[in-house]
Model the fold of this input.
Amino acid sequence: MSIYIDPAVANSLRGFEVPEKLGFGNVMAPVMFRAVYQDGCWSRGELVPYAPLALDPAAKVLHYAQSCFEGMKAYRTQGGGIALFRPERNCARMAHSAERLCMPAVPEALFMAGVRTVTAYCANLVPATSGESLYLRPFLIGTQADLSVSASTSYEYYVIASPSAAYHAGNMRLWVEREDSRAALGGTGDAKVGGNYAASLQSIARLKQRGYDQSLWLNPANRNLIEELSGMNFFAVIDGELHTPALSGSILEGVTRDSLIDLARDLGYTVHESAIDIDQLLELVQSGNCEEAFACGTAAIISPISELGDGEQRYELAHAPGPVAERLRAELLDLQEGRSEDRFGWMQAVEPVAPE
Ligand SMILES: Cc1ncc(COP(=O)(O)O)c(C=O)c1O
Done:
């Protein structure tokens, strides 16, 4: 696929320095990929200097939230190479999210050209410290200027990137959210769309005042089963076996969740994908049968959970981080950073490009 490279890209990259101390998602790489959909066709992709977007104030995305995105990473591998982790899964998930919002899917070749071109040109910005990476954020927005509630006729696909440390690297205290719902039955919970995150913010603001880090969302119908966090999937270790909520239609199918299930089974763990009743789980934490719990996602990798708060009650996990979370985190990072053999065929190398 032919990609236009703006001659100003070389200059933007030359003048950019990665800060020594990285946070998550607050430093943007100086280039971005862009393609436009109009009259049923996608334009040629282009790599251009990072810059604000010019959007009509009546653009559909600003009013009716026609917006979906992905989160993925380029890793520095053993020996200095660069690789993406299961990017085809992010492409498929973005197509699913787009379909749910009545948007055209970004064709696989264009999606991949976007993430690969940004990664190749930003190869020097991929951190070498284990646990750090170049976080990639592909996104798709409806741009038609028209205030009627209908699907946009024009769209733009972008990929931006951010050299980052892991999101929420330490232990987390979760608040069992019994008031709000992040997703609805038949809603958009299993799609990665902007509105889901907006719907989670009020809960997070409330629980932060109580000293907690993240909401633990329950099923929207009865609020008795665990679903996930606002940006991560949930695992509990009960009597040495792993349990994660089965995909319910309102849970986002995490690439990390899916990979950990395969990895854990390969390492000999029993993994259950089934309904997890919140009250039963809290009892198991109290009795000590649930020894550890953790959340997982591309950005956070694996974050141990140290406490679950439910109303006035606090339930402390015996181990945070526990041995299972520590082992899985190390095994996953070893794969992603090329220290262990890619036995599942998950990694895709990217050749760096030195801009002229
Ligand atoms: C709501 C939600 N659940 C789970 C995840 C974890 O997904 P993944 O492992 O693909 O990053 C994410 C992050 O994308 C998320 O936003």
